[in-house]
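PROTEIN DATA CARD
Card holder: Transcriptional regulator, ArsR family
Chain length: 108
Origin: Neorhodopirellula lusitana
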Amino acid sequence: MKKKELAKYEARAQIFKALAHPARLRIMDELAQYDERCVCDLTELVGFDMSTVSRHLSVLKNAGLVGVEKRGQMVFYRSTICCLTGFTDCVEKVLNNNVKQRQAALKA
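Structure generated from the sequence above:
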Protein backbone atom coordinates (compact mmCIF):
# COMPACT_ATOMS: atom_id res chain seq x y z
CA MET A 1 0.00 0.00 0.00
CA LYS A 2 1.29 3.45 -0.89
CA LYS A 3 1.91 6.07 1.80
CA LYS A 4 -0.97 8.29 0.73
CA GLU A 5 -3.38 5.37 0.55
CA LEU A 6 -2.23 4.09 3.95
CA ALA A 7 -2.74 7.55 5.48
CA LYS A 8 -6.31 7.61 4.13
CA TYR A 9 -7.13 4.24 5.72
CA GLU A 10 -5.45 5.18 8.99
CA ALA A 11 -7.58 8.34 9.13
CA ARG A 12 -10.71 6.28 8.51
CA ALA A 13 -9.68 3.82 11.22
CA GLN A 14 -9.38 6.68 13.72
CA ILE A 15 -13.01 7.62 13.09
CA PHE A 16 -14.11 4.00 13.51
CA LYS A 17 -12.09 3.80 16.73
CA ALA A 18 -13.84 6.91 18.02
CA LEU A 19 -17.18 5.21 17.41
CA ALA A 20 -16.07 1.86 18.83
CA HIS A 21 -17.69 2.20 22.25
CA PRO A 22 -21.36 1.65 23.13
CA ALA A 23 -21.59 4.91 25.11
CA ARG A 24 -20.17 6.93 22.23
CA LEU A 25 -22.56 5.29 19.78
CA ARG A 26 -25.47 6.12 22.11
CA ILE A 27 -24.26 9.71 22.40
CA MET A 28 -24.05 10.02 18.62
CA ASP A 29 -27.58 8.61 18.25
CA GLU A 30 -28.83 11.20 20.74
CA LEU A 31 -27.03 14.04 18.99
CA ALA A 32 -28.45 12.92 15.64
CA GLN A 33 -31.95 13.20 17.14
CA TYR A 34 -31.52 16.62 18.75
CA ASP A 35 -29.73 19.76 17.63
CA GLU A 36 -27.56 19.80 20.73
CA ARG A 37 -27.25 18.37 24.22
CA CYS A 38 -25.47 19.52 27.34
CA VAL A 39 -23.04 17.24 29.15
CA CYS A 40 -25.52 16.87 32.01
CA ASP A 41 -28.18 15.44 29.66
CA LEU A 42 -25.71 13.05 28.08
CA THR A 43 -24.43 11.95 31.50
CA GLU A 44 -27.95 11.00 32.52
CA LEU A 45 -28.54 9.28 29.17
CA VAL A 46 -25.54 6.93 29.29
CA GLY A 47 -25.46 6.51 33.06
CA PHE A 48 -21.79 7.33 33.62
CA ASP A 49 -20.28 10.07 35.72
CA MET A 50 -19.65 13.44 34.10
CA SER A 51 -15.88 13.00 33.80
CA THR A 52 -16.30 9.71 31.91
CA VAL A 53 -18.87 11.23 29.55
CA SER A 54 -16.58 14.23 29.02
CA ARG A 55 -13.76 11.87 28.02
CA HIS A 56 -16.05 10.09 25.55
CA LEU A 57 -17.10 13.45 24.11
CA SER A 58 -13.46 14.47 23.82
CA VAL A 59 -12.74 11.36 21.74
CA LEU A 60 -15.68 12.18 19.46
CA LYS A 61 -14.60 15.81 19.20
CA ASN A 62 -11.00 14.89 18.34
CA ALA A 63 -12.32 12.64 15.56
CA GLY A 64 -14.33 15.55 14.16
CA LEU A 65 -17.69 13.95 14.92
CA VAL A 66 -19.02 16.52 17.40
CA GLY A 67 -18.74 20.25 17.88
CA VAL A 68 -18.70 22.10 21.18
CA GLU A 69 -20.16 25.39 22.33
CA LYS A 70 -19.71 26.80 25.81
CA ARG A 71 -22.42 29.10 27.17
CA GLY A 72 -21.56 30.35 30.62
CA GLN A 73 -21.00 27.31 32.81
CA MET A 74 -22.84 24.97 30.40
CA VAL A 75 -21.14 23.06 27.58
CA PHE A 76 -23.28 21.92 24.65
CA TYR A 77 -22.38 19.30 22.05
CA ARG A 78 -23.80 18.78 18.59
CA SER A 79 -23.14 16.31 15.82
CA THR A 80 -21.06 17.67 12.96
CA ILE A 81 -22.13 14.91 10.58
CA CYS A 82 -25.45 13.78 9.15
CA CYS A 83 -24.35 10.52 7.52
CA LEU A 84 -24.05 8.38 10.65
CA THR A 85 -27.74 7.42 10.58
CA GLY A 86 -27.29 5.73 7.20
CA PHE A 87 -24.23 3.90 8.46
CA THR A 88 -26.10 2.78 11.58
CA ASP A 89 -28.96 1.50 9.42
CA CYS A 90 -26.42 -0.50 7.41
CA VAL A 91 -24.94 -1.99 10.60
CA GLU A 92 -28.45 -2.99 11.75
CA LYS A 93 -28.99 -4.82 8.45
CA VAL A 94 -25.74 -6.73 8.95
CA LEU A 95 -26.78 -7.66 12.51
CA ASN A 96 -30.20 -8.85 11.32
CA ASN A 97 -28.60 -10.88 8.55
CA ASN A 98 -26.20 -12.47 11.04
CA VAL A 99 -29.13 -13.51 13.25
CA LYS A 100 -30.94 -15.03 10.27
CA GLN A 101 -27.83 -16.97 9.25
CA ARG A 102 -27.36 -18.33 12.80
CA GLN A 103 -31.01 -19.35 12.98
CA ALA A 104 -30.74 -21.11 9.62
CA ALA A 105 -27.58 -22.91 10.75
CA LEU A 106 -29.30 -24.13 13.93
CA LYS A 107 -32.23 -25.52 11.90
CA ALA A 108 -29.90 -27.40 9.55
